Amino acid sequence: MFDWTAGELAEGLRCYRESLFFEAHEHWEAVWLQAPEPQKTFLQGMIQTAGSFHHFRRGNRNGARSMMHKALARLDRYPETYEGIALGALRGNCRAWLVAFESELVEMPAVPPIELV
Question: In the chain, at which end, N or C, are there fewer CB atoms within 10 A of the end residue's CB?
Answer without folding.
Answer: N
